[in-house]
Amino acid sequence: MRQNRFGSRLRWWRRHRGLSQLDFAGMAGTTQRHVSFLESGRAQPSREMVLRLATALDVPLRQQNALLLAAGFAPVWRERDLTEPELAMVNHALDYMLEQQEPFPAIVVDRRWNLLRANAGAGRLTTFLTGPSPNPVSTAPVNIAEWMMSPELRPVLVNWQEVAMQLLRSVQTDAMTDGTQETADLLQRLLTYPSVPDLSQMPVLEEPPPPVLAMHFRKGQTTLRLFTTIATLGTPQDVTVQELRIECFFPADEATSQVFKEWASPPPYGPGMAR
């Protein structure tokens, strides 16, 4: 049973990555016959072989642990809480990046877009757009993807359809990459929101299109245009660390830059106040 569980998981990942047994064997430095035996349960892998196969398939660390368990081995990769002392250097790096992004917004999210922390610039933007918090009454983590798709943000996001399409495709890529039911479920929840664009829909391109898609917010007399970058921590050897993402927002024009600088300055300026 244990061998069959590993074999079926291995076969699923290989097919998920669109590889034949022969191509996969070449990438993993083994033979097609051995791959076939492992998938059918006729052979039992060593711990080192499990890790080699998982690396060849670019399986995330969380799912590598699942493969190890299925093969009868203890997990290799730890999943630490961000508050643990061993992740102090990671926390310092995250706080440093958020601080350096001021006065512009920056957030840290996990693999499924749950908000973990944000800088003051992100707080000022959220307050201006929808109030003090995107989910003020719930104790559950704020999911940034669901907040972006929610009806409460649409009135102030001028190009919501284009932004929503890009977000949906990002989550779809995440689901393909990590192969988990949880990420697939997130994608399905996003697709149930009203007026969500079809994933097969092709964008209408301007001539010529801009270099990046900027989010265009408008509320009252204030207009903001922001584009984002998403960074991850290099060479992770911890499940939590691998799944962290740092999203930084940058002004797409000088007017937007000036608004954020004014919001960060002492009164009389501030989010939601007359300018």
Structure description:
The chain is α+β, with helices and mostly antiparallel strands and 275 residues long. The protein has 2 domains: 2-70, Orthogonal Bundle (434 Repressor (Amino-terminal Domain)); 85-264, 2-Layer Sandwich (Beta-Lactamase). 47% of the residues lie in helices and 11% in strands. The protein is built from 12 helices and 5 strands. The chain has helices at residues 2-16, 21-28, 32-40, 47-56, 61-70, 88-101, 120-130, 144-149, 160-178, 181-191, 239-242, 254-264; strands at 106-109, 115-118, 215-219, 222-231, 245-251. The chain has a 5-stranded antiparallel sheet with strand order 2-1-5-4-3, with helices on both faces. β3 and β4 form a beta hairpin. α2 crosses α3 and α9 packs antiparallel against α10. The chain is elongated, with a radius of gyration of 22 Å. The mean pLDDT is 91.
